[in-house]
Amino acid sequence: MKKSVIFGALTVAGLAAGAAAAGTLDDVKARGKLNCGVTTGLVGFAAPDANGEWGGFDVGVCRAVAAAVLGDPKAVEFVPTTGKTRFTALASGEIDMLARNTTWTFSRDVDLKFTFVGVNYYDGQGFMVPKELGVSSAKELDGATVCIQTGTTTELNLADFFRSNNISYEPVPIETNAEAQQQYLAGACDVYTTDASGLAATRATFEDPSAHVLLPEIISKEPLGPLVRHGDDNWGDVVRWTLNALITAEELGVSSANIGEMSAGTNNPEVNRLLGSEGNLGEMLGLSADWAKNAIMASGNYGELFEKNIGENTPIGLARGLNAQWTDGGLIYSPPFR
Amino acid sequence: MTTLTDPPKASFRLSMLIYDTRYRSLTIQAVAMLGFMLLAAWLLNNTLTNLATLGKPIDLGFLGEPASYDINQRLLDYNSRDTHLRASFIGLINTLVVAVLGCITATIVGVLVGVLRLSKNWLVARIMTVYVEMFRNVPVLLWIVLAMAILIESLPAPRAFRGDNPEATMKVFDSVAITNRGVYVPEPLFSNSLGSIHLFGDSSLRFDVSLDLMAILVVLIASIFAVRKVTSRAAHIQETTGVRPKTWHVNLAILFVPMIALLAVLGFHLGYPELKGFNFTGGTHMRNSLIALWLALSLYTAAFIAEIVRGGILAISHGQTEAANALGLRPGKTMRLVILPQALRVIIPPMISNYLNLTKNSSLAIAVGYMDITGTLGGITMNQTGRELECVLMLMGCYLLISLSISMVMNWYNARVALVER
Question: Belongs to which family (chain A) (predicted)?
């Protein structure tokens, strides 16, 4: 852990400049593989299954990008990163993109020199407590011991929340979600706090999920999205528009089920432009004409990804809420493909 | 007739730099040095240029900005509005705490185990062998994680202490609470406290020194000094008259009366932990992370120290033991008075490197969420500010400083116990 940080820090200098000069897109094509940073394991978002195959909502984005660039959704090398190592990994060029429940903030964008290409999940920080504690509001948590994943925005929000409400707490910093789960279940902390989606995902893996409640307070805005390094706008565009393609596909009713017939050509010019049967959007990006088709076929459009991994019919059971299409009153909105 | 000839003129030709053995080694060294410096300069220049290209030139300004995160174990005052420098300083203190605690415990356990491993008692010797081999041959990170897991999983949560018929109760006359969040012990409190001195004003390195503690230390040192005076006077009387005056009651009085008087004046009493809300409040809270780290680091390092001690003892010729026996010293005294003092000369130098190892290994603290300097400066601060190079360099500087200080103290001690050649 320590070694990788130091190594990363020292190679920031060596690699980043080189990578930026050569162009990440060309690098990925030459390598034949996309290096995608994900979490060390958060069910629903990114976790390996029994066969070691990575799956999840964030993984879906990685696979879509790999499919768009290389035509093969399996051509992804998943690099598990912790809250602490993720930025160093991205800055040093160890990974090409990061899809790891990462909150888009001013300082990460401007000061850490990353480009957030969009938002794939609108989240907020919540609290989970065992039901038996009888707590109904986060403001009753005076003096509680709180488990937090270190190196995240949640750590800072937590400090601000308790400070502004003038109550005290005892932070227990933890490296990964799995360790936090262990400590929380053993009662070494009263409360576990992270993004509400993460809490739901974690609770779903408990033996008895109903013994734990999420408190009503959402204490922050956490727009989560994939990000890339500053300085390579071309690559940023590829990732951004792949994500937008997934979103637009849902909006236009293009799904992995009907994409075969739709890609042959439809009456809707935007669908045609998206799927490459009209215009040359793929060429503009430096990709093949069927890039978006490949991306959508990888694991479905945005809505399919959501339902399959974290939707209401999964153990995690998240409602679309803010993450519904704008046409359904949500915030998910893609610029037009034109 | 004598012919005066000038001594041959020392002519120097450039080729001599290579062909003359007097100069050749100098040439090679100079070339190697030049090459090394060029390499270093190239690396440095490359780093600086690339950082500038990235738009992240070396800048320590971030240290003055608010850290915005909380630290659970803080021996000095700190809140989330303090600067990153302050947070690093708190982390540094935490590193020092665990390093000092670890070094002391490791030495005690190590010396004990090292001596016992040489015991003639088969069982004791074997048990010590098993201990040494187990701890020496498993990475310390695993021991740390294991210790933490045991503490978390096997001890009761604070809520188990609640209710009329609780599952868990406090130990030692209801004064110590052992929970899976740490151990709460009574804390010393002073009702007529003298207050404290604030050093370094409002800066990030501000440091409060408790006057109560200082007063206690001063009285203790004075007492010890007086006791030594009494003892040396007794020895003097014994040398001149042959009769040693009784001193133990005087010594006891000197040690205890002033201390008790001082504590009474300060209004010394204990603050007991009690369950309030989610956690115990009051008392001193030794967190699990500290205990696990401390325990694992000291037991691990003690295994190495035990081997060094054993080696040191074996290095002393058996004749010394026989001579001591011939003088009528019992085995315990032989070890304490004859063998160990001589063995120290062999033991100290490798011991230094073990202390250094323990201190450096304390950077594994993050595995159990102990907020040492690697957790604050090299962890959260680095992550939130994105100043990787600055943070890592500062971190390296801190460890270098700590290690060099330990080396200095131990080398001084080594020079004191070293064999004086006559």
Answer: Belongs to the bacterial solute-binding protein 3 family.
Residue in chain A lying closest to B150 (CA): A186
CA A82 to mean position of chain CA atoms: 13
Residue indicated by tokens 């030495």: B107
A156 touches chain B (CB under 8 A): yes
Q: CA nearest B54 in A: which residue? A: A17
Say yes or no for a CB contact (<8 Å) between B46 and A13. yes
Whether A25-120+225-328 and A124-221 share one fold: the answer is yes
CA B25 to chain centre: 43
pLDDT per position as a tens digit, A80-111: 998 888 998 998 899 999 999 899 999 899 88
SS (H, E, C) B173-197: CCCEEEEECEEEECEEEECCCCCEE
Which is nearest to B372 in space by CA: B134, B132, B108, B97? B97
Q: What is the ipTM of this complex?
A: 0.78
What is the topology classification, in CATH, of domain B82-150+286-422? MetI-like fold (1.10.3720)
CB of A47 within 8 A of CB of A80?
no
Closest by Cβ to A172, choosing from B363, B369, B374: B369
Q: Give which of B78, B384, B396, B399 to mutate to test A binding, by max A Cβ within 10 Å.
A: B384
Token pair for residue B325? Answer: 């026996």
| Cβ B185 vs Cβ B175: under 8 Å | yes
pLDDT along chain B (422 residues), means of 10: 66 81 88 96 91 81 91 89 93 95 96 92 95 94 94 88 80 84 90 83 82 91 93 91 86 90 89 86 89 96 95 92 93 89 88 93 91 91 87 94 92 82 66
Instruction: Report CB contact under 8 Å: B278, A144.
Output: yes
CATH fold for the domain made of A124-221: D-Maltodextrin-Binding Protein; domain 2 (3.40.190)
Write out the residue limits of the CATH 1.10.3720.10 domain(s) in chain B.
82-150+286-422
Cross-chain residue pair B69–A13, CB shorter than 8 Å: no
Three-class DSSP category at A23: coil
Q: Can you tell me the distance from the alpha carbon of B177 to that of B170, in angstroms, rounded to the nearest whole number? A: 5
Q: Provide the residue ranges of all domains of chain A, joining segments of one domain with +.
A: 25-120+225-328, 124-221
Mutate one of A4, A6, A110 to test the B interface: name it (highest B CB count within 10 A).
A6
Tokens 């990114």, residue? A46
CA–CA gap between residue B390 and residue B378 (Å, rounded) = 10
Mutation to test the A interface, candidates B43, B54, B146, most A Cβ within 10 Å: B54
Q: Cβ–Cβ contacts within 10 Å for residue A303, how many?
A: 22
CA B35 vs CA A137, B15, B41: distances in Å? 66, 21, 10
The architecture that CATH gives domain A25-120+225-328 is 3-Layer(aba) Sandwich (3.40)
pTM over 0.95: no
Contact B369 A158 (CB under 8 A): no
Residue B263 identity: L
| Cα–Cα dist A78/A37, whole Å | 6
Find the CB nearest A186 among B53, B79, B180.
B180
Chain B partners within 8 Å of A111 (Cβ): 385-386
